Structures are given as C-alpha cells and as structure tokens.
Fold this protein.
Amino acid sequence: MNSVGEIGGASFASVPFPTPGSRSGAKRIASRLPVFSYAGGRHADPVPDAAALAVRSLRASHPGMEHPALDGVSLRIPSGTRVALVGPNGSGKSTLLKAVVGLLRPESGSILVHGNPVGACHHRVAYLPQRGEIDWRFPINVRKLVMTGRYVHLGWLKRPGREDHELVHDILARLGIEDLSSRQIGQLSGGQQQRALLARSLAQGSDLLLLDEPLAAVDAETREKISAVIRELWESGKTIVTATHDLESLSSDFDAAFYLREGREAAPEAEAFTGIPLR
C-alpha cells in the first residue's frame, strides 16, 4: 500500500486532515498534492454530441518502467453506456483509468472527456480506485471521506453547506453505511471500505464514473448493494467504465467490453462478449 492514496484528484496522507474553509489547512494539503490537471478547478461545458470518453493512440508509462504501460490504445465510449475493461493483471486497465482521471500524464496521444481535454471538466469525472491504493490509517471518518467528493464543487476554502451534508447523508443511507459515518475508515471491513469509496464517488455527482474493480474481494451483501447502485446510476444516464475480471457478468452487466493485454488492445477470444463497437 502506498503511503499516499490518491482519490479522484485528492491525496490522503498521514497528516492532519484540514477542512474546507481553513486557509492554512488548504495550504497544508495543497502542498501534499501531486501536480496534475485534474485538480485545476475548471468547469467547462460538455461539447454537444461528443462521446463521454474518447481516447486516441494513447501511450503512457509509470515512473521507472522500461516499457510503456499503455501503447497505442484507442477507444470511444458513448454517453450513457456501461463499458468493461477486461484483461489480466498488468494489462493496463488501471493505468487507463488513471490517465483518464488525470493521475498519470500521457506521453503521447489524446484523451477527451465529453469533448474536452482532461482537467477541463474534472467535476464530471469520478474515480473509484482499488482499496489497496488507499492509506486506511489516515485519520478521517467515513462521513468526512465521503464529503471530500464535494470538494470538486466547493474548492478548498468554502465549507460544505446544508445541501452538501444532506446529500452525503442520503448517499451513506443508499449504500447502507449511515450507521458507520463517525467510524475511522481503517476500522471498516473490506466491503464497508468499498462502499465508502463508492459513496465518495457518488457525492461528486459526476456524469462519467471510472471504477477500478469495485466488486473485488467483497462480501455477498456488498456485491449486491454496489451492483444495484451501479445499475441505478446507469439507468439515470451515467456513463460507467469498470475494470473487471468477472467474465461471466459481461453480457448481463455491460453494453460493451474492451480487452487489453500488455498495454495494448487485444482481440477477444472466440465467442467472447464484445457488445457495441467502441470506435
């Protein structure tokens, strides 16, 4: 586990957690943030009729790696669809999500979100990382974690208002963790932690959700709850891109599947689910 967990443009390190409205606290946490465009604070309107996500000839590498984690990847995801990213560990699924959300700067190629470059409409993209990327020792309770999903709208110096608190309460109830709101996040079970991360993504109110294995290693109750919420989001018109290893649910839970292997698009096996074209 990294000492710092990055969640949708915010970093959670083992330092006191400042609240919005505190200028000194804003400076402290801002000094711990990595530099990427997703945290830029801009709000551009979507381009009419543009795809929710358009990636072209994307090449990206992780620091210290000899070979690129993504090489020449292209896809186009229409708004309101559910797309599965499929491939073995190390195939580039998580890397693609991080590049789209702005946590990894591409070496070449382009990424457009609703027709705008990464960072131009960062409030329209929510990212749910894998649990192992989060420092669960961070001194923050569940309610405050979920409230950080509102920071993209509030900024660092504005305190959450009544509507923000009501929204967070409703989301906690929706995911069945409202009774855990005052619990430190490291005291949660794995399934509860995953619900809390999803709650944070929902609090952002984004049109495009990037979910990195949201059902991995969770209990049956959590799987059912998260699956139901994801379906509700899709039915409400959200676009959902999910990295997954669950091949059995592809045809029932997704509109399309995009296959990756060793950082490149891979041809699906015979009779594998593909769904709508992603070009």
Notes: The chain has a mean pLDDT of 85. The first helix runs from residue 23 to 30.
